[in-house]
Write a structure and sequence with these properties.
By secondary structure, the protein is α+β, with helices and mostly antiparallel strands. It is 18% helix and 44% strand. It has five helices and 18 strands.
């Protein structure tokens, strides 16, 4: 779909029309927790509503939770939209279903301008940016730093002239080409050391490896959880996706997806961001009781 926006030149007062390409996606996310006995559900935090902005708009959003719960919404410290579900009675199954239709305008992900001083690597953030970005630049421990510096040396050697974007894209492609992607059902995120040692990982493991490497370069990075539209699998049961963002002066937070080896584009739908990879699961909560639980998740992302 092409939307036509009106622009008035402030100098000539002439009117111009330009086309903006918009894509629409539907995301259905269903989560089922089945318990072997009656349990008491504690509060659950739901990160299911995509992050709105100039490049993504929510057309409709429906959230259903069973058993009945009181839902309270708020924005957390990183501006994620969080729903807190408080339950009033016992249950043997918890169902969380969300259905959202979005309008995506990020048609040209490479169409951004980097500040002159940050075009080439290395560069230093301004003093004001360093203060604000400090949580996203915390270095890993010394052992991990040494490991990652040796790994980075295979991609870029100190003294080599390189554009900042080119270096970040090299890291993205290297993870994609040298490591094996594996679906991991168990919760949590592998450390960068584990991922390199095993030679494999999930999308969240690859995102963390990329983040840690970027921090060793002195740049700010953060973890992103969301959805990916994979056209060949749109009719199959999928799962959530994860990637990373790097702060580039002038361009802002730009996404890189080492799982696919490319920059983030229109097929990526962000839901939550965090400086910590393990901090933004789609659903988190607790229950009281001796029962065991089984988790089933289904995600469908389709283009409308």
């Amino acid at each position: 779909m092409i939307l036509w926006d009106l622009f008035r030149d402030p100098l000539s007062n002439k009117k111009f029309h330009f086309g903006v390409i918009m894509k629409r996606y539907k995301i259905i996310h269903r989560t089922y927790y089945n318990y072997t006995d009656i349990v008491t559900l504690g509060a659950h935090h739901l990160l299911l509503r995509p992050r709105e902005g100039h490049d993504l708009r929510i057309e409709s959003f429906v959230l259903k939770v069973t058993p009945d719960a009181q839902i309270y919404w708020h924005r957390d410290v990183e501006d994620n939209s969080v729903a807190i579900a408080n339950f009033t009675g016992p249950a043997q199954q918890l169902t969380v279903e969300s259905e959202v239709i979005i309008q995506q305008y990020n048609e040209s992900p490479l169409d951004f301008i980097v500040a002159d001083y940050a075009i080439n690597y290395p560069f230093s953030y301004t003093e004001g940016d360093q203060f604000l970005l400090s949580p996203y630049r915390v270095l890993p421990d010394q052992k991990t730093r040494e490991l990652l510096n040796n790994w980075i040396f295979q991609v870029w050697k100190s003294g080599e002239q390189v554009q900042t974007y080119t270096l970040l894209q090299r890291l993205t492609e290297t993870i994609n080409k040298t490591l094996v992607y594996k679906v991991r059902e168990e919760p949590g995120v592998q450390s960068a050391e584990e991922t390199l040692s095993l030679g494999s990982g999930s999308c969240r493991d690859f995102a963390l490896l990329f983040m840690e490497a970027v921090k060793c370069l002195g740049l700010a990075s953060r973890f992103v959880s969301g959805y990916l539209h994979a056209p060949l699998m749109s009719s199959q049961i999928g799962s959530t996706h994860a990637w990373a963002e790097v702060y580039l002066p002038g361009g802002g937070w730009k996404g890189f997806d080492p799982t696919i080896g490319d920059i983030v584009g229109t097929d990526h739908i962000p839901v939550a961001v965090s400086r910590l990879a393990e901090a933004v699961p789609p659903i988190s909560g607790s229950y009281a009781g001796s029962a065991k639980s089984k988790l089933d998740v289904g995600v469908w992302v389709s283009k409308l």
